[in-house]
What we know:
Layout (H helix, E strand, L loop, with lengths): L1 H9 L10 H6 L4 E7 L6 H12 L6 E5 L20 H13 L3 E8 L4 E2 L2 E2 L1 H5 L38 H15 L4 E5 L19 H17 L4 E5 L6 H4 L23 E5 L7 H7 L3 E6 L3 H17 L8 E7 L4 H8 L13 H24 L1
Parallel strand pairs: 1-2, 1-10, 2-3, 3-6, 6-7, 7-8, 8-9, 9-10
Antiparallel strand pairs: 4-5
Amino acid sequence: MKKLKLLMLASISIIALNVSAQQITDSLYQVKGFAIAAPRPNGVADFVKFINEELAPRKVNTLILRVDYNYEFKIHPELRDSICLSKKDVKKIVAACKDHNIAIIPQINLLGHQSWASKLGSLLKVYPEFDETPWIKMPATPAEYKWPNADGLYCKSYCPLHPSVHKIVFDVMDEVLDAFEAKAFHAGMDEVFYLGETKCPRCAGRDKAVLFANEVQTIRDHLAEKGRELWIWGDRLIDGRTTGIGQWAASYNDTWKAIDMIPRDVVICDWQYDRDNQTAVYFAMKGLRVVTCAWNRPNVALSQVDNFYKSRLISGKEMKPRFYGIAETIWSTTPQFLDGYYGRTVATQNGDNTPWDTFRVMFAKMAEAEQTAQATTKQ
Length: 379
């Protein structure tokens, strides 16, 4: 019954917006995206099947693939995950995407998200000298990790002012971009809680917004040398207190001021999962291209699709192209998502609030808008 109601919501026609055929055509997406963790080697075939049978028919044109250290790096083999994709595995994914004109944007988390629960990520594990907060020790086991905690530990960050960090980071960025034949790179940079810490010998006393903006600029400039583009998550650029959005989907540590310091050619992935805060308008008005991102709440996703189209419709020629697109984001392993999507496992505790239900409903809503636009244009 719940699914039926959601599908009925998805069937609300864009005609209800009472706009002309030309306006409807002008409102269509530029980026129609899907973001997920890269599969492990034994899951490549299943993932390629999903690309061919699910992403392609929905006309997805952008695949943000969280690779991190799940790749057989040649230049820094010390950073590889214990089980990781080979170049041959990667080329299978690349070939499938090429067949359907899907651009791959590989992601490696930079600055923040250098740890999770009790586990350090590869970069800080191998190069502990890059740690922004080496005095904060990781819990011994996942069970010992609690939030909130006295250390304010959510995820560790690397120190952006360490003199050696960018040499390593740029090496792996370049290699993964070459492997995936990509023209854009996603640097993550979300949920950065540790930055400009008072005990850091390099960052202490520095403006956190300036530190964040400078790191964006540094990564962007490196990519631009080879004609590549930078994408990041947008949460650190939103004032969490003023908006009431909070410290997760927005910033409490003043990094939000960086929005006026970063280059205007950076693409912002604006994730707002619990409610449609319409923050895409904020980014667009700041001169940035923005991709609205949904996750696991179908009703929120439907609202986001509606507001994306409406924002494009009412915007002038300067603002319209900045509403750059819409993406579904998946925050589980690839097998967990595919098992849920194909019904191999059933998650009853969340009802219809699942990533796969959101995926189906959101893309159905987008497809209906496209079909309505085409039909109206022919009349």
